[in-house]
Amino acid sequence: MSATPRRPLAAHPRAIHLRYAVYGLVFGFGLSRIGFGDFAEVHAMFVFDDLRLFLAFAGGVALTMVGFVALARMSAMPRRHLHPGSVLGGVLFGAGWAITGACPSIVLVQLGGGHVSALATLAGVLAGVAAYAPVHRRWLPWQLDSCSV
Prior knowledge:
Elements: H1 13-34, H2 39-46, H3 51-74, H4 84-100, H5 104-112, H6 118-139
Helix pairs in contact: 1-5, 2-3, 5-6
């Protein structure tokens, strides 16, 4: 009788999920500590009253851009056209963020911080996700394969 080979603990699905849960908790804690979970702080960023969050966000975007440029130079990533869904999605995402003071990840940070009003934002996120497929079929003419290679 041969024994089945055991996966290393680090490759076990539960270990992977646990590792990502810890990453998410640390990331959420950091976002909460710097003020991204507070509507007043986010509002101050959007109206340029306090540039602290704006500069933190801009720094994160710049660092991510450097990473993508480095990855593009190290691999044969093909250039892609701008997908029209990205424009509409960006506008809706930005409008929702400005109105509610929360993007989808910050909703979870706000809920973890005890902000009951974040339930309304979470309901809006879930309603938007549920409504996307029928809205796309009816009014949006583009293909859904924007992420395929």
